[in-house]
Design brief:
This protein has about 425 residues and is an alpha/beta fold. The protein has two domains: about 220 residues, Rossmann fold (3-Layer(aba) Sandwich); about 120 residues, Rossmann fold, CATH 3.40.50.1100. The chain contains 14 helices and 17 strands. Strand 7, helix 3 and strand 8 form a beta-alpha-beta unit. The chain starts with 8 loop residues before the first strand and ends with a helix.
Length: about 425
């Protein structure tokens, strides 16, 4: 492989416009005026694809990375035939993230969270500490695989109810440790564990939506679509938990406007949640710039009901400057809802018409695309990008020997914070 030259970029605060270098895992403005995301500003305004680099890194011009890690897949965009004909859509493009070797899709974890992991882990942080990641499942599986294969110390914080999402085709390296909140806990509780961990010496937060590498890694789905189609789509469909992927799509769209070769339009963000857990939809439908209050017990019950557990974020980056509210306000669009039953039917339809299995979250997006067509929310001649955020998992499992992991530690929801910290410290020392 050709020697990789680190991507040239700097960072910009969206709260005040201050620009600054990415010295060491910067996650916020050096002098914040309000809660705000920061954004990577790349030296190359016009993207060039790099087939000489493997997988995701062919998009390195717009990734904040200084090294290439082996083993990455990349999003694959193709023009739909079966689903498009069924829905009567003339320009439906599917961006598939997952395992589908026949189409060149080689993400072994079956999810676009690999795009995040390979981008984040390719960014420098100047630290030999332990990265801390909270996840409802897919992110944990992707980061665990990437960090295990590249020997990057990692602490995963997950809900025990989602532990079945942590499957692999081999044994994880001991540099990866997993802790969980007990049954009945959700992503919010996993975040609580991660917040405690990063208070310890030698641990640092991956950063979630605040990490430019995470967002720009997810944005490669749009880079794949636009460079394949040759133009910016009119509509972008994706199921959301935190909405970080939608923010990433919007930011990628803005970069293509600066590029100038792919059109001047902004994709309408057609986003979806799994009913009855609809906190982002409820806030957006009321045109609220902040999330609405949620009762913890009601939220947990709703999360228990939904099939797409990865969509269960109760504290998304919605109100923050440069966050989801700003993205939707600028680009336009809507937030739709699909029930478990509607999503299950959509998944069956995709398997029948397109030829591969999809994850529950992706099925939610397909179901809401079907609704948008039936309710005439989109024009059938429009160019549509459907982001299949996970798929081919059943296919991959059928072709490989799969191992499920168990957490190193499980904590009660009301566990003493000091005791949690003590046990985490002891686990890494031992």
């Amino acid at each position: 492989m050709k020697n990789f030259i680190p991507t040239a970029y700097h960072l910009k605060s969206l709260c005040c416009g201050e620009e600054f270098p990415d010295k060491m895992w910067e996650l916020q403005c050096p002098s914040p005026h309000q809660p705000s995301l920061i954004r990577a500003i790349y030296d190359k305004k016009q993207i060039a694809l790099h087939p000489e680099y493997s997988g995701l890194y062919r998009y390195a011009d717009w990734l904040p990375v200084e090294r290439i890690l082996q083993g990455s897949g990349e999003p694959v965009t193709y023009k739909s035939e079966g689903l498009s004909k069924f829905l009567g859509l003339e320009e439906l493009y599917i961006t598939f993230n997952g395992y589908w070797p026949e189409k060149g899709a080689l993400m072994k974890s079956g999810t676009f969270k690999e795009c995040e992991a390979y981008s984040v882990c390719g960014r420098t942080n100047g630290s030999n500490g332990v990265m801390v990641v909270a996840s409802a499942g897919n992110t944990a599986r992707a980061f665990a695989r990437v960090c295990s294969e590249n020997k990057i110390p990692l602490l995963l914080c997950v809900p025990l109810d989602n532990i079945q999402a942590l499957w692999f085709d081999g044994i994880l390296n001991t540099c990866v440790k997993i802790i969980a909140c007990e049954k009945g806990g959700d992503y919010y509780d996993a975040i609580h564990l991660s917040n405690l961990a990063v208070e310890l010496d030698g641990f640092y937060p991956e950063g979630g939506a605040k990490n430019v590498a995470r967002r720009d890694g997810m944005g490669t789905t749009v880079l794949s679509a636009v460079t394949t189609i040759g133009s910016i789509p009119d509509y972008y469909f994706q199921a959301i938990g935190s909405g970080t992927g939608a923010i990433a799509a919007w930011e990628a769209n803005l970069r293509f406007l600066d590029d100038g070769r792919f059109g001047r339009n902004k994709m309408k963000l057609m986003l979806s949640q799994n009913a009855p857990f609809l906190p982002i939809k409820e806030a957006w439908d009321q045109n609220s710039p902040i999330m609405l209050p949620m009762d913890d017990e009601i939220a947990r019950r709703q999360v228990e009901e939904i099939n797409a557990k990865v969509l269960s974020n109760r504290k998304p980056p919605y109100a923050i400057k440069g966050g989801l509210f700003d993205a939707l306000t600028d680009a336009g669009g809507a937030i739709l809802a699909a029930s478990n039953q509607e999503a299950e039917k959509a998944a069956e339809l995709f398997l029948q018409l397109e030829g591969n299995d999809v994850e529950p979250a992706a099925a939610v997006a397909i179901a809401t695309l079907m609704k948008a067509v039936s309710e005439k929310l989109i024009e059938k001649k429009s160019v549509i990008m459907l982001n299949i955020t996970g798929g081919g998992i059943e296919k991959y499992k059928s072709e490989n020997s799969i191992t499920y992991v168990t957490p190193n530690l499980v904590f009660a929801l009301d566990a003493d914070p000091l005791e949690i910290k003590r046990q985490i410290t002891q686990m890494f020392q031992g």
